[in-house]
Amino acid sequence: MRKKIAAANWKMNLTYAQANELLDNLFSKKYSLSENQQVVIAVPAPYLHLAKEKTQGKNQVFISAQNIYTKKSGAYTGEISVEMLQSMGIEHTIIGHSERRDYFNESNEFLKEKVDICLENHITPIFCCGEALEVREQNKQNQFVAKQIEESLFHLSSTDIQKVVIAYEPIWAIGTGKTATSEQAQEIQQFIRQLIANKYDAATADAVSILYGGSVKANNAKELFSQPDIDGGLVGGASLNAEEFAAIINALA
């Protein structure tokens, strides 16, 4: 049974004191997780240790990095390595968020390298894909997303691709207040699952968790998560509010 995941992406937000307060507030809220449900919180790198300490003893709750580099170590000032994450007990990282692709020119080939080093070192990659508004308006979103997935993930074995979490994020709905309708989101997430089935098989595709990201909030999470191919969300702004994100966690049920 594939995992249902409520993932938070704090991006470059909060001071240390604010991060500490948000974590305390979140973990004081009532939420419940079944065996196949997880919470993953991607915090800025300076707060990884703090967040990891806060989650000690909390089942099904994981801390994630927001980025990783393609080398294990070396003269790469400012980068974060898999060895660093492993030494802190961090088991997840976001890869290929649209902001990394756009602002830092991360290519599909470069992200392929990031995926590989994660899987080689037992770090779960949350692989982001998704189209900009002009692509959606030309009705070319399927081809665009297929290219991202094929060039970064389809070299993997059936066993390894099942270790990847895919997060589909329509760029036009990130931080804009616009959200794809549940039908629009389901349509492309079904397309992604079928793409995987065509490359591998139906059982492999059914094992991959595919999240939706793009202005997920407490008031739309339940409807989005009720779709058969949406396995949770990668949540940006709403994850900075403890009450809001706790409600999103509960929407997994």
Automatic annotation (TrEMBL):
The keyword Cytoplasm applies. The active site is at residues 97, 169. Substrate binds at residues 9-11, 175, 215, 236-237. It is an enzyme of class 5 (isomerase). One of its GO terms (biological process) is gluconeogenesis. It catalyses: D-glyceraldehyde 3-phosphate = dihydroxyacetone phosphate. GO terms for cellular component: cytosol. The keyword Zinc-finger does not apply. One of its GO terms (molecular function) is triose-phosphate isomerase activity. It is found in: Cytoplasm. Pfam families: TIM. Involved in the gluconeogenesis. Catalyzes stereospecifically the conversion of dihydroxyacetone phosphate (DHAP) to D-glyceraldehyde-3-phosphate (G3P). Homodimer. Belongs to the triosephosphate isomerase family. This is Triosephosphate isomerase.
